[in-house]
Amino acid sequence: MGTKGQATPSGIRRCCIRGQKCTLAFGVGLLSLLAACSTGSGTSGMTGTAGGALTPFGTSTSTQVITSLAFPSGTTTSGAAITVGNVDPFVTLTWQPTFPTPDFYEITIGTTPYGTDIYYSEIISNTQTSIQPWGLLPDGHIYYATLFSVTGNTYPNTQIIFQTSTKVTLGDRATLYSTVESLTKQVREMTVGGPYTAPLPGTPLFSIASRRHNTPNPGGPDCVDFSLALISLMLPQRISVRMRTTTLDGTGYEGHTMDEYWDPFLNRWNLADATFGVVYFDDATQTGQSLLEMNQLVLNKNYAAVQEKFVSKWGDLVYRIYYMDPLSLYLNPVDPIGGNYSPVSNDPRSALSLHTQSDVVGVAGTYLLEFASLGDSATVSDPHGYGNLSLAPIPIVLGSKPMYFSRAYGFSSGWSFTKVPSSTKVYTFPVLWTNTPTLLYPFDGDNDVDTSSPIPFHWTEIAGAPAYRLDVGTSQGANDVFTSGEVPVTTLPVQLGKNPTYYIRTSAKGSDGNWHYRDSTISTGY
After folding, report:
1. Residue 214, Cβ neighbours under 10 Å: how many?
2. From CA 437, how far away is CA 440, in angstroms rounded?
3. Burial 323-338 (b: 16+ CB within 10 A, else e)
4. Which of 21, 158, 192, 403 is 20 to 30 A from 13 (CA-CA)?
5. To 5 degrees, how large is the angle CA 107–CA 215–CA 118?
6. Closest to 458 measured CA to CA, from 513, 415, 403
7. How many whole angstroms separate alpha carbon 225 and alpha carbon 208?
């Protein structure tokens, strides 16, 4: 959301990945493993309340503390296979400052030499000498950690090979699941007032958003901010967690980042998404759902099998009013750390609705353009929104076929194309996960709604719905003010009077002929 995308290597991409031959430098500095040891079972004292103190879910019985692991002087890692065993999977990596001082550091961890499939640190300040990585698993997994000391276009580096401890004591399953839900709830509620506001000062979300966006007063956090904040809370509770990314159309704009946590009882990854305040978990079977399982459900259009469990005080609100259906984001998973958004395997158009240009011009909504070629472009006049805006193609590959989508934008009523090729296709984002349309404008609960001119009521498009109905009344379920009857659109202007409260019912007709509705209220302030 916002700047959607996975934290991917910068310096490492220019150095030692994807089969490139690496020239290793020594003298980078000291890379140490501090195997943090603790005692006790770690199975009690956990609370499920937001802001409550949480006792770590598990503990390590490792007794080895490695404080000074240095490579032999005058050798490179290619000539010295150094393996450290019995390492706590929640280890802190530390190193000594290098001289001369580099521009910055980077750390990668992979399951192969110089791999990035487990962890990438992003840029680390040249004054920092420790970091706690995520994504490590217990039970004897072998990992390769590389420290890069980056100066200009040079990337001298040093590597250690380590194996995680097999002696990890776990808490119980119920404690793990309740802790994940509690932490996801906490992060989702780290905003000021509402779900789409700035992060709350003093919270991990605030500090992460401030650092990532390089501002002391960050605005609305994006999905990567939420993901990193949840990771920062899970690690102290000794829950193995990793960042994952998906994309609808092979771009980072229509992509999303969330987390997967490791369930050691079932030996599987489960999703936790703090951006939407949801975990994908079946209470009846006590089983979560992973990104790849979600991908298969979406591909099979088996949306009813998705187990959304909304854990924040906002309930499903953020899910409902997002500009696209969150399930459609699972169409094309991105490989863990270091993967590319494109090429994609699954056609994004399967989750989109195609419209003619003439049908959508002037109608408020969120639109995605598909251009015929890389040389095409469009310009839009949106007088009540963006103003004048240029839309350019973003090249992606579907299988082996090039495609050219724009970034999606939400336009206000009265927008128009000032330039667009006739071959350009226009898509909207139908809702897949529910059959009840949600009022998008005005929002449910809005007060001081201006009734001096017709209000352009707008609601979500439901996938496969042949018709909609808008009813406005002075009591819930009534239509004594306005009723549209069956209409094929999701926007209608309605002139309201000075009644203080109006009850809105938006309905969608199902393929079986039944109607499914959702109620909202608005106030005029009179």
Report:
1. 7
2. 9
3. bbbbbbbbbbbbebbb
4. 403
5. 20
6. 415
7. 6
Residue 369 and residue 425: Cα distance in Å, rounded?
Answer: 6
The DSSP element (H or E) to which 186 belongs, if any, is helix 173-188
Is the pLDDT at 68 greater than 70? The verdict is no
Distances (CA, A) of 321 to 298, 385, 465: 20, 18, 18
pLDDT tens-place string over residues 142-162? 999 888 889 999 888 888 888
DSSP letters spanning 384-440:
TTTEEEEE--EEEEETTEEEEE---EEE-TT-EEEE--TT-EEEE--B-S-SS--EE
Q: Give yes or no for a contact between 171 and 58, defined as CB atoms under 8 angstroms apart.
A: yes
Q: Mean per-residue pLDDT for 205-209?
A: 96
Query: What region does 164 belong to: left with phi over 0, alpha with psi -120 to 50, or beta?
Result: beta
Token pair, residue 380, equals 């839009």
Strands 59-60 and 92-95: unpaired
| Contact between residue 258 and residue 289 where contact means Cβ atoms under 8 Å apart | no
Q: What is the DSSP letter of 118?
A: S
Strand 278-282, strand 142-150: pairing: unpaired
> Which pLDDT belongs to residue 170?
74
- Please, what's the largest Cα pairwise distance for the chain? 86
Mean pLDDT on 443-471? 93
- Helix or strand run (H / E) with residue 394: strand 394-398
Interatomic CA distance for residues 152 and 239, integer angstroms:
37
Q: Kindly tell me if the per-residue pLDDT of 423 is higher than 80.
A: yes
Whether the CB-CB separation of 192 and 203 falls below 8 Å is answered with no
Q: Which helix (H) or strand (E) holds 457?
A: strand 455-459
Residue the block writes with tokens 């009077």: 497
E-only strand ranges, 184-295: 241-247, 255-263, 268-273, 278-282, 287-288
Question: With 0-12 CB in 10 A as exposed, 13-18 as middle and 19+ as buried, what is 480?
Answer: exposed
Q: What per-residue confidence (pLDDT) applies to 1?
A: 45
Task: Give CA separation, 129 vs 73, 93, 125, 204, 318, in Å.
Answer: 21, 8, 9, 20, 38
Structure tokens at 33: 């493993």
Query: Residue 435's CB: how many other CB atoms inside 10 A?
Result: 20
Residue pointed to by tokens 């049908």: 359
Instruction: Let me know: does 164 contact 139? Beta carbons within 8 Å.
Output: yes
Please write the tens of the pLDDT for every residue from 309-368.
999 999 999 999 999 999 999 999 998 766 788 899 999 999 999 999 999 999 999 999
Measured torsion, CA atoms of residues 328, 470, 318, 221, in degrees rounded to the nearest 10: 100
Give the DSSP H/E element, type plus range, for residue 427. Answer: strand 425-428
Q: Which helix (H) or strand (E) holds 164?
A: strand 157-164
Whether 478 contacts 466, CB under 8 Å: no
Provide the whole-model pTM. Answer: 0.84
